[in-house]
Amino acid sequence: MEWKVNREADKPLYQQIFEFIEEKIAYGEFPPGSLLPSERKLAEQLNVNRMTIVHVYDELQASGLVQRKKGSGTQVSTHKWGVLPKGVTNWRKYVEGGSFLPTYPLIRHIREAAKRMENGFDLASGELSADLFPTRILQSSFTKALFPDDLGYEHPQGHLPFRETVAAYMKSYHHIDTTSSSVLITSGAQQALYLLTQCLLSPGDAIAFEAPSYCYSLPLFQSTGLRIFGLQVDAHGINPDDIVSLHRKHQIRMVFLNPTYQNPTGTVLTDKRRKKVLEISTELGIPIVEDDPFSLLSFEDKSHSPIKSFDESGNVLYIGSLSKVVASSLRIGWLIGPQSVINRLADARQQMDFGLSIFPQLIANQFIQSTEFPKHLKILRQELLDRRNEMISALQEILDEKVDFTVPNGGLHIWCKINQNVDDQQLVEEGIKNNILFMPGSVYGFPNGYARFTYARLKRESINEAISRFADALSRI
Amino acid sequence: MEWKVNREADKPLYQQIFEFIEEKIAYGEFPPGSLLPSERKLAEQLNVNRMTIVHVYDELQASGLVQRKKGSGTQVSTHKWGVLPKGVTNWRKYVEGGSFLPTYPLIRHIREAAKRMENGFDLASGELSADLFPTRILQSSFTKALFPDDLGYEHPQGHLPFRETVAAYMKSYHHIDTTSSSVLITSGAQQALYLLTQCLLSPGDAIAFEAPSYCYSLPLFQSTGLRIFGLQVDAHGINPDDIVSLHRKHQIRMVFLNPTYQNPTGTVLTDKRRKKVLEISTELGIPIVEDDPFSLLSFEDKSHSPIKSFDESGNVLYIGSLSKVVASSLRIGWLIGPQSVINRLADARQQMDFGLSIFPQLIANQFIQSTEFPKHLKILRQELLDRRNEMISALQEILDEKVDFTVPNGGLHIWCKINQNVDDQQLVEEGIKNNILFMPGSVYGFPNGYARFTYARLKRESINEAISRFADALSRI
Fold first, then answer.
1. Which pLDDT band, with edges at 50, 70 and 90, does B456 fall under?
2. Consecutive H or E run containing A69
């Protein structure tokens, strides 16, 4: 609920809230028969005293707008002023059907807390902080960007000049040879993953990804009815031989890997293992989906070549993204693979949304070709390195032996093992009370007692305080 | 295939094509085991003589890059230079699985022809012509647009200031009362329809829409496994009582209507019928999905109030779009409905693409609030009216009694009955030969012998010639 009470208005709070709900009912946004939030919950959402809400609900009942029943809450009247004494759509029945599972409740809870907190410490959101986005440069990119002659429907794979730029970018930054017709521009990596699971896999198919993995936090894999098997990660990523044994047991149909600065562990799959993974994939005829959002965010002198750069047989589907290196709300990613696959996915994407808006494509096209882009990357890497170092110091000083972690050489996150028995849910709640958000390990398919801390979303000067608050929360359970 | 031969280069055509295919094979874009297009088809796509392709394929075979088998075509060698004597992914097996049906072959065929034709007459693409998009104004909108402080992930329902603008726009243009929290910004109307079918309906559910309807041309309804029933359209839209009888027989779960300047017939559902539809919907508890992309493109003095504007019980889900009034590649639409529904769909959309890019939202937000927007609408309406009149004259003069049609009072299309026996597929082919594209009635779930002509995508001076070419094609079958 975005609406807020206006504490400076002359109108009493209870009356503001009454009118707000009355309006929602009149507009059909709270339809007849729907349930209003409980008094306690609404009071919390609007940050008012619970008695204020009790007063509002009493008034709503008195005016016949709602009905209150013991044990079943406050319901919008189905006899709205006697005007509509008929049945209405039972929306609940519709909302609970369909083929999407709702987002993991713990993640929803953390995201909602992030929205509510005004001066919280957010180590949970896996993205850059506002000051790291190249906002001014993007704005000026756009004025320079050449507008196409025709703003009609675009090519199903995306704007051709931008796909050509992406092909050149893949060559110069990642040593991958490709051409525009094998590139599908997507709404971030998320849409690429969605298309792959929807179009190339069927319910019941077995797939594998790293354990732990951010993939466990995406309900889309479960929504599609896939059977998921984990590949344990050690200090150098997964063990390729595990793919062979999993395949023998479960007939794995696809392997999803995030080989460089893996989310959440930060590990890098060694070159030797990358080549071995490719060999096994080719041998068994199992495609590899390589998700590569972080590799430009490296603190090392050397860069890691994607598995795709070794791939001569078209077995690797490569996913790139500008969300972590430019801006998450730009929503630009891409998928590179064999043409038959790209054509199929582009056709399905037309059915979903009729393709991506041309505007973020024009902006990205201008920016990643400009001399501003390498400058931006350099500043970004340095700032992330400073924040990582700050977090490492804070973890060592404040939490010391209470946690174990490996120092990541790139990316946005530090993965910590907590050296005491904790219940993830409880620790999250204690954190929220203490204005500190983090992602618990259970979200990534791991047992309780791990945490992912993102050092990219907080300014350096706040990191020490954030870790202190986490330590506080931890000490209280 | 976007690649084209360069007829001005010194390099012979066959060698250009050879190198192009060799590159694709080397990059894994044509993976080992995949089929190349037939000689005939590739020759057509590249607009070269078939013997050139025969020559290329002979060379490819001689170098061991492809294998040719009688009856099964030309296949990329699985033994690429003997380097990879192993199995590779059988992409065909993957591409034919999944939960999306491919787009209707006839529509694909027409779209591909549209891309190929350089000086064709396009009465098929249901969108504005390049000169009608307010390109320069959009470009300057963006420089004025206020950038948000944080380019991090946006609210799942879309950028809040833009949702507030949409709520105000719904009030001023469509007499609909709503608030930002009941608005979900989507990638055009297409994504709204996709979300509704995926999240609120299940395979086997019965739904109804107009017959004929553009909905028949969208494979997403079939992909979801829905049972589809038609509501016949007369001069004043559907007959509301048909919903009751369909419901009795098939337990209809949702009704999709395009009440104003319906696509393809151009009819307007009368106010009396709108109210009756709403009454029946409320009585039976069946939600109405009201798709309203054309109502601002009116040639009448009066405007038609959407069904949603009479809806007090939240039974109508309203879909708006800027694709037909601003630009199709902007990809901005929205859905308005009860909050529980909007929340559910916003959550599902996060799983699909993590939300819409902020940039088209900033542009649309600036533009539809500006004084430029009503000016643009006025010019657009006048120009569309002129084109409609031009087409009416051409139909009367050139085709005369060979077709019947009703004059539409708004929108982009004229729907014609052809007064002779025709095979749609054959007429489309004759049209393509004659450089004229149109949409045959069978695409909209109707029998052979109807055509939808879009007068918006062609400049006025080309319309007469387009209808002549259609008449030519018709006379040849």
1. very high
2. strand A66-69
Q: How many residues does chain A have?
A: 477
Quick one: pLDDT band at residue B79, thresholds 50, 70, 90? low
Which residues in chain A are contacts of B160 at CB distance < 8 A? 2
* Structure token digits, residue B10: 């010194």
Nearest to B183 by CA among B321, B331, B337, B47: B337
Chain A CB within 8 Å of residue B222 CB: no
B130 closest CB neighbour out of A150, A188, A315? A150
Could you tell me if B397 and B246 are in contact, meaning their C-beta atoms sit under 8 angstroms apart? no
- Interatomic CA distance for residues B392 and A289, integer angstroms: 54
Contact call for B352 and A177, based on CB within 8 A: no
**What letter would DSSP give residue B305?**
P
Distance of CA A263 to the CA centre of its chain: 11
Q: Residue B41 CA to chain centroid, in angstroms?
A: 26
CB B294 within 8 A of CB B263: yes
Distance between CA atoms of residues A295 and A350, nearest Å: 30
Which chain B residue is nearest to residue A333, measuring alpha carbons? B353
Q: Do A344 and B95 touch (CB under 8 A)?
A: yes
Locate A314 and state its tokens. 């078209």
Largest CA distance in chain A: 74
Give A128's contacts in chain B (Cβ within 8 Å): 152
CA distances, B147 to each of A130, A146, B141, B144, B362 (Å): 12, 20, 12, 9, 8
Regarding predicted confidence, which is higher, A372 or B82? A372
Q: What domains sit in chain A, N to C, each tagged with a CATH number?
A: 13-95 (1.10.10.10), 105-127+375-475 (3.90.1150.10), 148-369 (3.40.640.10)
- DSSP, collapsed to helix, strand or coil, labels residue A291 as strand
- Distance between CA atoms of residues A192 and B111, nearest Å: 24
Amino acid at A122: D
Between CA A235 and CA A264 the distance in angstroms is 13
A259, A269 contact by CB (below 8 A): yes
Its pTM stands at 0.89
On whether the CB atoms of residues B125 and B117 are closer than 8 A, the answer is no
Query: pLDDT confidence of A231, banded at 50, 70, 90?
Result: very high
Q: Tokens 């953390």 belong to which residue?
A: A110
Contact B434, B473 (CB under 8 A): yes
Pairing of strands B237-238, B227-234: antiparallel
Q: Is A26 at the interface with chain B, CB within 8 A?
A: yes
pLDDT (tens digit per residue) in A174-222: 999 999 999 999 999 999 999 999 899 988 899 999 999 999 888 888 8
Nearest Cα neighbor of B471 from B451, B457, B455, B454 is: B451
For residue A79, CA distances in Å to A18, A64, A75, B307, B350 come to 19, 8, 11, 21, 35
Q: Is A203 exposed, middle or buried (0-12, 13-18, 19+ CB in 10 A)?
A: exposed
Q: Distance between CA B319 and CA B176 in Å, rounded?
A: 12
Beta strands in B213-304 (DSSP E): 227-234, 237-238, 252-257, 288-291
Per DSSP, what are the bridge partners of residue B74? B68
On chain B, the residues whose CB falls within 8 A of the CB of A177 are 23, 26-27
N residues, chain B:
477
B96-105 pLDDT per residue, tens = 766 677 777 8
Residues whose CB falls within 8 Å of the CB of residue B175, separated by 6 or more in sequence, listed in order? B305, B306, B309
- Reported as a single tens digit per residue, the pLDDT across B347-370 is 999 999 999 999 999 999 999 999
CA angle A108, A112, A118 (to 5 degrees): 155
Considering only CA atoms, which of B388, B393, B395, B390 is closest in space to residue B419? B395
* Residue A256 near residue A215, CB atoms below 8 Å: yes
Q: What share of chain A is helix, strand, coil (3-state, %, to 5)?
A: 50, 15, 40
Question: Which residues, including other chains, have CB under 8 Å from residue B109's CB and lie 6 or more apart?
Answer: B428
